[in-house]
Amino acid sequence: MAVLKVHGSPISTATQRVLVTIIEKGLEYDLLFVNLAEGEHKREPFISLNPFGQVPAFEDGDLKLFESRAITQYIAHDYASSGTPLISFEKMPVMVNWMEVEAHHFEPVASVLGWELVYKPMFGMTTDAAAVEENEAKLATVLDVYEKRLGQSKYLGGDEFTLADLHHLPYLNCLMGTPTKKIFESRPCVSAWSQDILARPSWAKVLDLQKH
């Protein structure tokens, strides 16, 4: 079996999504660091791996992929017998439904809040308070739907942890270190789910990569 190659940065949320999937599956991998500050993702040789100039890029032998959710689904399906079963064949429609919810309802709002509350201060930029207020209101509406769902099952896709939950980890972790965490904590089922998935050993290993 070839060692998987991930081209990216451990501070990139999309790269984190791929890394935590690989670690959950217990697979060998090489993280090939792409220096975002130096713009390495916008020029060769990286641009040949991802023509959109965004991390991550992924290689498994001759196969090359560059969208994080496509990569996680490939890993979960192609290495289904390894590590944590991250897909539920029995409840596939429900799992896929909540994967779509994460991509189209959760992340668009969470990414704005992450940019305003975490990354702007990191880069010495001023947070837009109006944008934070607007997107916190949107997030509250989204999480009301999550609260109802998580009152019916332990995880979004059913009773087992799947990609539907895993895909939330990067921005969930990001926001739980900001005042926005109050929106999660005020919803008991969402709060319990958040604490549960953030406590996974695989996620701790991803966070540890940021220290090196």
TrEMBL record:
Residues 2-83 form the GST N-terminal domain. The keyword Metal-binding does not apply. It catalyses: RX + glutathione = an S-substituted glutathione + a halide anion + H(+). One of its GO terms (biological process) is response to toxic substance. One of its GO terms (cellular component) is cytoplasm. SUPFAM superfamilies: GST C-terminal domain-like, Thioredoxin-like. One of its GO terms (molecular function) is glutathione binding. Its EC number is 2.5.1.18. Residues 88-212 form the GST C-terminal domain. Keywords: Transferase. It is an enzyme of class 2 (transferase). Belongs to the GST superfamily. Phi family. This is glutathione transferase. It comes from Papaver somniferum (Opium poppy).
